[in-house]
Batch of 4 targets.
Target 1
Amino acid sequence: MFSKTSKTKQTAANNRGGSATEKKGGLSVINSDLRVTGDLISESDVQVDGTVNGDIRTRNLTIGQSGEVRGEIIADKIRICGSVTGQVRARDVSLADTARMMGDILHESLSIEPGAHIEGHCRRIEGVAEEGGLTVIQAGQVVASHVKKEQSK
C-alpha cells in the first residue's frame, strides 16, 4: 500500500499527464452584473459578459453579447460578440455579427461575420509581441515574459 513501487507508479502517471504549465485552470467568467476596473491577467480562458475597464491578457477570451471591454486585449484566441474599445492583438480573432469593435486589430487570422461593426485598422502580423515589456507571444505560445523593450539611441 505504501511501498516505493506505488509511489513510483503514481509519479510516472502524473508525469505522463503533462506538466502543470500545459494544463492551466478552467474558465473564469465576468458575469453580466459585474463591473471590473483594472487589468486582468490569466493563463486560463476568460469569458466577459459584464464590463471591464482595463487591459486583458489571457489565453482564450470570449466577450459575450452583453460584454464590454475598454482597454488593450492580448490573447491567443479572441471571440468578440459584444463591445470592445481599444487595441486587440491575437493570433486568431473572430467577430460575431453582434460585435462592435472600436480600435485596431493585430492578428494572424481574422474572421468577421456580416453585421459586425468595426472602426479601426486590421493588420496581419506573424507574431504578437507586447510593446510594454511584459510578455512576448509568437504563434500563440508565450516565448518570454518580463521582457524589456530595447530603446534606440
Note: The first strand starts at residue 27 and ends at 30.
Target 2
Amino acid sequence: MVRLRKPLPPYTLKTPEGGKVYLPDLKGKPLVLLKDEALAQSLAARAAELKALGAQTYLLAQAPRPSPLLLDPEGALLPAIPQRGVLVTDAFLEVYHLGPVRDEEEVLEWLRFVEAQCPECVLPEADWF
C-alpha cells in the first residue's frame, strides 16, 4: 500500500522489453511515476529541468505505450495514482506527493520541494563559513 511520508513499497515492475525493475534499485534520485500520457509528454518537453533536478520520470501502464515506460501488469501501483495525478518521491523513495496535479509545472514544484527537504542535500553548517 502506498502512503504519504512512507517509503514506496518494494514492488517489481517491468520494462516493455520484458526486463524487471525493482523499485528499491531506483534509490538515489527523486522519482516521479504517472499514468497520464499527456502529462508525461508535457514533462518530456521539460527534460532539461527534470535532469537539473536529478529526477527520474516514468509513465506507468499495464500494456506497452510510449517510453520512458514501466509496466505494472498486476496493478500494484496504478490504482494508487489518480487520473491526472502523480506519485513523487525523494531520493530515498519516501512518498512526498500522491495526488492530482494541474500541469507539469506543479510536478516540477513538487520536485523542487522534495529537493529542499532533503537534509543530505544540504551542506553542514560548518561548511558554510
Note: The first helix runs from residue 37 to 44.
Target 3
Amino acid sequence: MIERSVWFRIARGFAWLILVLSLLGLVGGVVYSARSVRQYFKGEETISASDVKTAIEARRAGASGMEGLEASPGHLDSKAEGQLTTEAIDIFNLLPPESQNRFGGKERVRLHLVMSAANIQGGDVNVQ
C-alpha cells in the first residue's frame, strides 16, 4: 500500500509538471504569433511586389556588386547572359595569372561584359 501511494504521488507530480510545461508552451506560442499577426496587420516588415521586381531587374542588370559602374538601361535575356558568361569564363581562364588578378576576378569581368553587352543599342541578342 505504501509503495502504491509513493508511485502514485510521483506520477501525479510528473503529470502536473507536464501540464504546466504544456501550458507555458501554449502561452508562449500565442504571444509569439500575436506579435507576428500584429506586425502583419500594421504592415511592418513587408515587401511589395514592385520592390521585388526592382531588385530582380537591378540584379539582372548587374547593378549590385559593381561599385564604379552604372546600371544599364537594357538587359540581356537569360539565355544570352548564360552564353556570355560561359564565353567570358573561358576567355578569363586563358589569361595569365597576373592579368587575372589585375582585372579583379572572374565575377567582376563577367559583370562588366554583361553590362557592356546590355548597353549596345539596336539589333538583337546576337548583335549584343
Note: The chain has a mean pLDDT of 75.
Target 4
Amino acid sequence: MALPAESGNVPRRRSAGGLRGRWPGAVSRPGSAEFEASAKNWLFDLAPARWRHEEVFHRNPVELACMLRLHLDAEVLAMQAGLKALRTALAGRLRRADSVEIIEAYVREQTWAKGMREQVALVEDALHHALGGAARKRVAWRIVSGP
C-alpha cells in the first residue's frame, strides 16, 4: 500500500518531470521499528539474487540501495540502447507482426526501471537519514561522474 504524499515523514523527491516519487508500499515508514529491515528486504528483492550472499550489503543497507540505484540506471540505459537498435534495424523494412510488441516490451521495461530507480532513491535517502547521515552519500556516483 503506497503512502500518500502528505503522510508523516516519508521522503519525497521531485523527478525531472516535476512529479513526486512514490514510496514503495512494502517498506515501512522511516522512523518505525521495522523500517530498516523492511527496506533491506525490499531492496534485496529488487537486486540480483547473488547480492543476498554479500554480507557487506546486510551490514550497509545504504550501500545496497546506492548500488541498486546504479544498477537500475544501467537497466534504463540498456533499454534505451536496445530500443534504438531495434528501431534502427526495423527502419525501412517490412515489420513483422510482433515488432510492435517487442518495442512495447522495451518501453515497459524502461518505464519499470525508471519507477523502481525513483523508489530506490527515496529509500536510499531515508536510510541515509535514519542511519545517522554518514558523510559518504552517493560516492559511487561522484566517482563515476568525476569531481
Note: Confidence is low (pLDDT under 50) at residues 1-20.
